[in-house]
Amino acid sequence: MKCLVILCVILGAVSGIRGEKCDKPEVTATAYVTQDATVLTNVAFTTQFTLKCSNGVKDISLYAECEGKTLPAVRLSADNKYQVSWTEDIKKVHSGNYEVKLYDEESYAAIRKAHRNNEDPSSVKPLAVVTVTNPGVYQGPWINSELLAVALAALVSYAAFSAKSKLLA
């Protein structure tokens, strides 16, 4: 019986430590977006960020939400470095800023509950927001080189036949 009480106290202490909230989060982020989509069907977005809490909390499980997609934030190292990655179809991608909202386990559970109860999930305040800037995706030249070559060949042929007909007339 004593062992059971000790085990419950230890588990309660560990769960209390793991359940700490991040106060005044500071996020430092870098991002990468696929720039050349001439042969791709999807554009990749990746952001790496470091989360610093004023109360020193580490090892927080984070979730991200961007453009209606819910994604896990993968912890890269013990010093609170995380990464969020996703892909979008080229036709749906727009240039400009994408807001990646970060949530801890408690706020993520609140979002899931809001979806389940058909409530507005935007009422849940994110832990932090990371902005990923997409300058635009290059999808190739406006005119393909093959089409330009055919048009120039037709123009040269027309000029040559016009000149020949004027000489013979």
UniProtKB/TrEMBL annotation:
GO terms for cellular component: endoplasmic reticulum membrane. Residues 1-19 form the signal peptide. It is found in: Endoplasmic reticulum membrane. Pfam families: TRAP-delta. Keywords: Disulfide bond, Endoplasmic reticulum, Isopeptide bond, Membrane, Signal, Transmembrane, Transmembrane helix, Ubl conjugation. The keyword Transit peptide does not apply. Belongs to the TRAP-delta family. TRAP proteins are part of a complex whose function is to bind calcium to the ER membrane and thereby regulate the retention of ER resident proteins. Heterotetramer of TRAP-alpha, TRAP-beta, TRAP-delta and TRAP-gamma. This is Translocon-associated protein subunit delta. It comes from Cotesia congregata (Parasitoid wasp).
